[in-house]
Structures are given as C-alpha cells and as structure tokens.
Specification:
This protein has 143 residues and is of the alpha+beta class. It has one domain (14-141): Hotdog Thioesterase (Thiol Ester Dehydrase, Chain A, Roll), CATH 3.10.129. It has three helices and six strands. The chain has helices at 24-34, 44-49, 59-73, and strands at residues 14-22, 76-85, 98-112, 115-126, 129-130, 132-141. A hairpin with a 2-residue loop joins strand 4 (115-126) and strand 5. The longest helix is centred in the middle third of the chain and has 15 residues, at 59-73. The radius of gyration is 17 Å and the shape is elongated.
C-alpha cells in the first residue's frame, strides 16, 4: 500500500468530527437561500410567543451541517441521508452563535450491485443534547 492510499473502510471506522457555529447571520442567509422565512428562525419576539426559548436554526440547515461530516470524509458518493428532528438548535443573539457538534461512525457495510455501501450512523449535538434522531447516511465507497 502506498503512503497516499487510505486504508480500506471498515465497520467501526470513525469519521472526523466537526464543530460548526451557527449564528443569526447564518440563519438570515439560509432563509434567503431556502426561501424559508418562518419567523421562528428570525424573530426572537415571535419565537418566544410560540413557546420557543429563542430563535432556532432551520431543521434542514442543521441536517445539512450534519451531512458535512460524510461529504468531508471523502470516501465515496453519498447515496441517501435521513434523520428526524428531535430538539431545536437555539441560536443566541451574539457573535459566537450556537455550537453544533457532529460525528459519524461506519455502522455497516453491504454489497449492492458489486459496490460496497457503507451505512454511516451520525450524531449531532447542541448544548450536550442530541438534536437529530437516527441520522443515517449511505455511501457508495470508492475504495
């Protein structure tokens, strides 16, 4: 094996974790890109009026950030990705924002049509609590 060749992906391999800070400015940019201008993502007054502790990040933004662990891993083609939203990511009105920490682990590898398909179990945490339920990605491995 050459120095530049990565070892073959195996069950139990951990993907490099990431921490991403989500700020109110990020929410404004995401709202513009997604056309999701729901005021729970932009107005503290409105968010509190519907029982939320403060403005929350868009669920799909949270999910997209979590998916970056898989795409940054770079070991194959992302085939599909699913998750449930279990807890909101509350974004404070400051310069630091909310820290979302995401990690992944190869949970299984199957053979499909001659290709190795890895099932990646992800974890996404904000404020020490899980924010995505059962986030799983499937990747056609390139090794």
């Amino acid at each position: 094996m050459s120095e530049t060749t990565a070892p073959r992906v195996a069950v139990g391999d951990e993907l490099p974790a990431i921490e991403v800070r989500i700020t109110r400015a990020d929410l404004v940019r995401y709202a513009g890109a997604s056309l999701d201008f729901n005021p729970i993502h932009l107005s503290e007054r409105f968010a509190r009026s519907v029982g939320l502790p403060d403005v929350i990040a868009h669920g799909m933004l949270t999910m997209a950030i979590a998916g970056r662990v898989v795409t940054a891993w770079g070991r194959g083609e992302l085939l599909d990705y699913s998750a449930r939203f279990t807890r909101p990511v509350v974004v404070p009105d400051d310069d630091e924002g909310a820290a979302l920490t995401v990690a992944g682990k190869v949970a299984a590898i199957d053979e499909e049509d001659g290709a190795r398909i890895a099932r990646i179990a992800l974890s996404a945490h904000f404020d020490g609590k899980t924010v995505l339920g059962k986030p799983v990605a499937r990747v056609r491995l390139s090794d």
